[in-house]
Each structure stands twice: as C-alpha cells, then as structure tokens.
Amino acid sequence: MDLSILPQTIAQGVLVGSTYGLIGLSMGLMYSVSGAISLAQGHMVSMSMYLVLSLYTGLQLDPYVSVAITLPVLALAGAALYWFLIRPLSGNAIMVFQASLGLMFLIENVLLMIYGGQFHQVPSIVSNRFITFGDAMIMKLPLLIGFGVTGALAGILFVTLEYTDYGRSMRAVHQNERSAALVGVNVQKVRLWVFAMSGAVIAIAGVLLVPSTPLHPAEGLKYTLVGLMPLVLAGMSNFFGILLSGVIIGLAEAIGTVYISGAIGLSLPYIIFILILIFRPHGLFKGH
Amino acid sequence: MLELQSVHAGYDGIEVLSNVSLSVGDGDYVTLLGANNAGKSTLVNCISGLVRPTNGRIIYKGSDLVGVPPHEITSMGICQVPEGRQLFPSMTVLENLLMGGIAPNARSRRPERLEFVFELFPRLAERRKQQAGTLSGGEQQMAAIGRALIGGPTLLVLDEPSLGLSPLFVKAIFEALRGLHQGGLSILLVEQNLSVALRHAQRGYVLERGEIVLAGNNAKLRDDPHVRRAYLGL
C-alpha cells in the first residue's frame, strides 16, 4: 500500500464526488416538489455531455463556454420532462419510474444512432493544466473547477431556499402541497421551475464531467447510479446532505480504485452504500 | 359577497354535497354547522378551489369561482384556515406567516400585516423563530389564522378552528375573531361546536348528509327543537 498517494487520492475523490453530488441534487430537486424520481437523469447528463461534444466539433466551443448554451437547453428539457411526463402521470411515482425507464432507453439509443458506439473525448483548454499543492498533490484543473462550481451552487441554493419567496414556496410545496395552494402558491408553476432548475444542474454537472471523462452512450446508467446513491443516503430531499453524500461516494470510488485491486475495488462505492443503508436505513442525516 | 347556488360536489361518483345554497354578505359573520361527515370540509374546499363542484355556481363579487385555481381565489380575497391547521411543519412561525402573503398582490403589504398579526397574537411574536411543528395545538391555530390574515382577506373561511383546543385557547381565538369581524372582515365559520359558534356568529346554516336542512339567525337556530336535541344534547 502506497500511502504517499493517499492525499492525492482523497482530493481526487472529493472533487469527482462533488459532481456526483450535483447529479443527486438534480434528482433531489425533482423529488422534493413532485415525489417522483426519474431514472433517465443520468442519460440526461449524457445528453448534455454529447451536446458539449457537438458544440466543440461544430463550433470549436470550449466546454466551459458551451455551458452558456447547454444550460438553457437542459433547463428546457427538465421543464419538458415535467410537463409531458410527470404532470400527465400526476406524480404517480411507480408510473413515472417506468416511463423514465423508457426514456432512458430512448435517449441512449438516439445517442448511439447519432454518435455511434465508440468513445469520444472533448478537450478543454484547461484539460491538461495541473495545479500542485506542495509536493504531495497534483490536481487536474477541471476537477478543481468542478469542486468550486459545486460549492458556489450549494451557496446559491442555500440563500435561495432560506431567504427568498421562491425558495420558501419550494419548501412549502414539499411540506404541504394543499396548504401551499391555499396561501396562494401556484404549485404547478413552482414544479415547472424546479424541474427547469434540475435540468440546469444537470447541464452544469455534464460540463464539469466532460474534460476529465470519455463519452459513451451507455455511461448514462452509471451517472444515474452515482446520483441515486447520494440521494438515498441523504434521505431524498436534504440538498446539502446530497452534495456531501456525493463526496462520500466519490471518495469510496477513488480509494477503491487505487488501493483495492480488481472488481472489489471498483464496487467499493456500492458496498459502502449498502452498508450505510443497513445500519442507517433512514439515511445519514436523520436523527432517527 | 359570496353566494353558493345549488352546488353539488362529490368524489368518484359519490355525491357529498347536494343542492347546497348559502350566502355570506359584506361584513357578515356566518356559521355553517354540521357533524362529522356532513360535507363541511368539501364545501369549504369547493369555495377555495381545491374541489371542483360537479354542478352549481359559486359567485364571489360578481364572478364565478368554479374552475378558478386555489392560488387565484386566494389572491381574490378569500383566505382559508384549513381543518387541522395544516401549517408548514419544518418552517418557522415567521416563515409560515410570510408564506401567507406569497401571492403577488399581497407581498407589498406583508410587513404591516405581519405587525398586525403579532399584535393580535403576541404569542406568535414570541415564538417567531420556532418551528411551527413544535407549537402547541392552540398556538398552531393562531399561526394558521395569522397566515390566512397576511393574505389580506375580505372573506375569512375557518374550518373547525376549535377542534382539539383547550377552552382557554378557544376563548382567545374567538375573541380575536370577534375583533376582526368588528374591524369589517366577513367570516364564514365552519364548526361542529354549536354552542361556541352560535354564541359568536350572527346567523347560520345546518348541514346534514350534504344538504342544508336549516337556516336562520342564531336565536332561531338555538331554539330549534331539532338542533337542541341533535347537537346541543338538550
């Protein structure tokens, strides 16, 4: 066991995990106002990543620039997901689950049709930049950017939820939908906006993943899983718990890959996930 | 101001309200009396837009409310205090009250109305930072009434505000309501506690199995032999 690369491994895990947290957050936002989970969320991440690829090959846009386009597009996709899938099924969680399964295959195969089954890579001008901390840690700049953006988003989300009418309306719809309607909240509009927000978060997660991750249509399911795990660990609608749990999953992945050889190492995040659920079935952040 | 014209309503084909007509005038204090399952809450929810009547009209200030979504009805000046309080449990008292004025047309007047509610129920001012779910039943009822008042209602609809409260809180809440009514607010009070309701309202309706069986001023209702026997146990 080479302990000299431990700090590096931990830092790597934290940074990658923060993007997992973002995917979980996009699901948590959805769940909090509609009580439904979409399994196609990871495939929407893939979709946003391929959009970044097309913008790169077509217009030579750097991934960090193309977010200006993917963000509104994915926000629209999120809103459309609510309007055309969740709303007609009136939030029936099982039906949404099944419908999103269909959507998952649809997105995957459309991506396969357009881009083919080979891996793609989208470089960014910062892809090969590194930042060194002392002599023990060398971090890829894209990962650091990802971590910074996740922190900033968490801050914005906190202020919005705590101190604005918009955030309070979101919490109100989550806690008591009928009362929210009675005091004058347009519940449908709040849901539409939150789904758009969820799409925007996906676009950001996608852009952050692109410079350090190869693209493949079948990767969507992996993103759904790494988003679903923090979501469940944090008890479904604790947004900051979700981001933190994403970091736990990222850490488990980094440590498992570096220190434990073979299949066990790769499945460490899932093993830890199951262990946490066995010992804390209500999630990590609830008292009882 | 508010007039229900032969309203029918139900769920999944089972009729809960049949041919209900009633009216609340400007500055009226009207009570709707009835036992459990008489259809009181369904009627309240028809008024606030949560339940859509299958037939009939609900005329408020000249326009029909049937089909208007709940948040718009609130903006029009009908604010409901729902049965069982229905606060936002993990928000603070202050946040709950702020939510009461979330409608775009109520936001600008929120600070002054908040001050008014804190004067009406000083206990809420003391507990403003406390989570609503941790309040006592009576305090929660005060918060629920306060929340409705911040929307700036012209008609306040209360669904069983005395339910499960100690006599002391019942007294405090009905005194506050009397003050509000004297200040010009119209009130529709839905109750199964007849002795309390008839002491405060000017007139009332009795709802049984989804139908209005009796209407009149409170003296008439109090002296009615059927009411005395069925509801007051006399």
Explain what this protein looks like in three dimensions.
The complex is a heterodimer of chains A (288) and B (234). Chain A contains 12 helices and 2 strands; from the N terminus they run ααααββαααααααα. Chain A has 288 residues and is mainly α. Chain A has a two-stranded antiparallel sheet. The N and C termini of chain A lie far apart (38 Å). With 234 residues, chain B is of the alpha/beta class. Helix content of chain B is 38%, strand content 26%. Chain B has 10 helices and 10 strands. In chain B, the strands form 2 sheets. Chain B has a 6-stranded mixed β-sheet, sandwiched between helices. In chain B, strands 2-1-4-5 form a 4-stranded antiparallel β-sheet, with helices on one face. In chain B, β4 (55-60) and β5 form a beta hairpin. Chain B is globular and about 45 Å long. The mean pLDDT of chain B is 94. Chains A and B meet through α6 and α7 of A and α2 and α3 of B.
Helix content of chain B: 25-40%
* Average pLDDT over all residues of chain A: 89
Instruction: Note the total helix count of chain B.
Output: 10
Average of pLDDT of chain B = 94
How would a crystallographer describe the biggest sheet of chain B? 6 strands, mixed
Q: Helix and strand succession of chain A?
A: HHHHEEHHHHHHHH
Q: What is the CATH third-level topology name of chain A?
A: ABC transporter involved in vitamin B12 uptake, BtuC
Chain pair with largest interface: A-B, 17 and 29 residues
| Beginning-to-end CA distance, first to last residue of chain B | 35 Å
Topology readout:
The complex is a heterodimer of chains A (288) and B (234).
Chain A: H1 6-34, H2 41-59, H3 63-86, H4 93-115, E1 130-133, E2 137-140, H5 141-163, H6 165-175, H7 177-183, H8 187-209, H9 220-233, H10 239-259, H11 262-266, H12 268-279
Antiparallel strand pairs in A: 1-2
Chain B: E1 2-11, E2 14-24, E3 29-33, H1 40-48, E4 55-60, E5 63-64, H2 70-75, E6 78-81, H3 93-100, H4 110-120, H5 122-126, H6 137-150, E7 155-159, H7 167-182, E8 186-191, H8 194-200, E9 203-208, E10 211-217, H9 218-223, H10 225-230
Parallel strand pairs in B: 3-8, 3-9, 6-7, 7-8
Antiparallel strand pairs in B: 1-2, 1-4, 4-5, 9-10
Helix pairs in contact in B: 3-6, 4-6
